[in-house]
What we know:
2 copies of one chain form a homodimer. The first copy, chain A, is α/β, with parallel strands linked by helices. Chain A has 13 helices and 12 strands. Chain A has helices at 6-13, 17-24, 32-44, 51-58, 74-89, 103-115, 133-140, 164-177, 193-208, 228-236, 248-260, 277-282, 294-309, and strands at 63-68, 93-98, 120-123, 145-148, 159-162, 183-187, 218-220, 242-245, 268-270, 288-291, 320-323, 326-328. Chain A has a 6-stranded parallel β-sheet with strand order 2-1-3-4-5-11, with helices on both faces. In chain A, strands 7-6-8-9-10-12 form a 6-stranded mixed β-sheet, with helices on both faces. In chain A, α9 links the parallel β6 and β7 (218-220). The longest helix of chain A has 16 residues, at 74-89. Chain A is elongated, with a radius of gyration of 26 Å. The model of chain A is unreliable at 333-339 (pLDDT under 50). Chains A and B meet through α4, α5, β2, α6 and α11 of A and α4, α5, β2, α6 and α11 of B. Chain A binds a DNA duplex through residues 3, 5-7, 15-19, 21-22, 25, 29-31, 34, 49-50, 52-59.
Amino acid sequence: MDTITIKDIARALNLSTSTVSRALRDSYEINAETKRLVIEYAERLNYRPNPIALSLKENRSRVIGVIVPQIANNFFSQTINGIEAVAYSRGYHVIIFQTHESFEREILTVQQAVARKADGLLISLSSSTSDVTHLCQLQEKKLPIVLFDRVSNELDSPSVTADNFGGAFAATEHLIQTGRRRIAHLTIPPYISITQERLAGYRAALDKYGIPYDESLVRYAGFGQDEVEPIVDDLLRQSPDAFFAASDRLALGCLEALKKRNIAIPETVSLIGFTNITVANLLSPSMSTVEQPALEIGQLAAEQLFNMIEGKQKIPQPGIIRIPTRMVIRESSQRSLVG
Amino acid sequence: MDTITIKDIARALNLSTSTVSRALRDSYEINAETKRLVIEYAERLNYRPNPIALSLKENRSRVIGVIVPQIANNFFSQTINGIEAVAYSRGYHVIIFQTHESFEREILTVQQAVARKADGLLISLSSSTSDVTHLCQLQEKKLPIVLFDRVSNELDSPSVTADNFGGAFAATEHLIQTGRRRIAHLTIPPYISITQERLAGYRAALDKYGIPYDESLVRYAGFGQDEVEPIVDDLLRQSPDAFFAASDRLALGCLEALKKRNIAIPETVSLIGFTNITVANLLSPSMSTVEQPALEIGQLAAEQLFNMIEGKQKIPQPGIIRIPTRMVIRESSQRSLVG
DNA sequence: TTGTAGGCGTTATCAT
DNA sequence: ATGATAACGCCTACAA
């Protein structure tokens, strides 16, 4: 791999490496003619500074690390899109890591990012992460960290999520207002912040309408292939008159299971995740959704991070920014489950 | 960022950096006691070798670059999953770049990957890439490159795709066998290999059944938001009795447009892309699909790449590996468009 | 068995 | 205006 270096240019032009370096960085104290010569030659040979050498020297990489549980997930891939757009506009590159919902891999992954001298980290916590000391330590070492989506208040960092509470509240309220009382809540593992927030929104809505909270209507599902179906069966035994699923995957799994059992669904609300409105519109039976602003979350999180990285003067305000969700109501024609 | 280096260990233990280095790499020519001491100390301080320094020294990075048009795309995100799994198991890391379907960004992106000393590249070409000399040049410099999904025979590299011809043939044949004769083909930009292959499969099936190829039934759509609808309208004017869409996105766009116009669909086949079978199963109107083995494509492509990177001895067989697709037939109840 | 020196590509400091 | 030198963290040939 015959990469051309500053040395090559220096040799060819009978200059010292320092002169070449200065010429390329357009230093003022350099002869205009020399400068022209160097720049021309560099261009002709398509010289590119070695980012690795620069990283070693400057102890930074112009790379930010993005750590997500899964890439193959509509929400996260759209978030990454937003992050990448912002990073790109600032001349940074993005390196993406997956934790596969494993705490151990999250730790390894964070170590890797740090070892590779990422200038900052954007993290969405794995579902098995309850302890964030590994992140606290980095923060003490002044590494800029921003959490998004799955956040933690154990960590004093800026965080960006959707308004999960509000979205869940609206979804549940809608179901109540259309006559449902026994609303099943199918949700993701309990540790994650979004689960808690969505559950709280659900409970608050029940509260508001004087409907008692019934624990037997709430079920947590992991990320396994065949976990959803038995849980739906289980919930059906509680004779619910509506389903409120906390994610795309669960909502789809739920629909699938119900269809299989030939159960007509009055209305199912999938909270959070149906960024892909196109799909939701075409689903049968139809399903109302709460749309999550994935792109915006990514952009805003990235902007927060760059504020920390570049404007070191500003003290990062460690607080959670919540971006409003948007509810899309799709009425289904049947209501057979309604009491 | 108080990262601990080999120097720190040397100073603390009153040794030279070389001794420490050797001890850590478990060199045979080192005193067992010294070795123990060093390793223990390193562990206690949680020492991690600086990959950047290593990259600079060894002129390689243990990172492979993956270049895709879009991350936020079911197919690509699943492919990346497969790639990552293989890379991870070999101790490599993956850095992902998006070209956003732009030739210019593909070039920039490839340069970046090279500058960052990626040990190899996995590329799915952008839809606006017709010229691959930028890749040929790298190949001459011995950089291992493997193409996947969107390949090119201008480049003598191992390539991995789905059996697009076979999939399209099967899809079209199925439509013919169920009585259709005027099968509209809604497809992606013409430059890309997969478009050509799918079109060829479509034509071959028509041929087999003596149906003349009608150019007015074929339309290419770009990746813009609102491109699909007018094209579908256009196609409808040709009074087709079936649709064969060449991607997830187009198939969904097509369904959406038809639904909006209250047009009953006898059957639409979306070729290639519905990795997300769950969604396809729930769609209304239902739609047969050709499933693409995204994960396997990623894995196989990565394996090819590692063969080139590690077993430099083996001459990479520059040929296209085609992984079979799987067709899932979902019969729709209505057939109103059928002549 | 251990230490010294040089180099990977670049820039900053200090000469000249 | 330009050059020599050292340093970033690591490894390795060579010396001791």
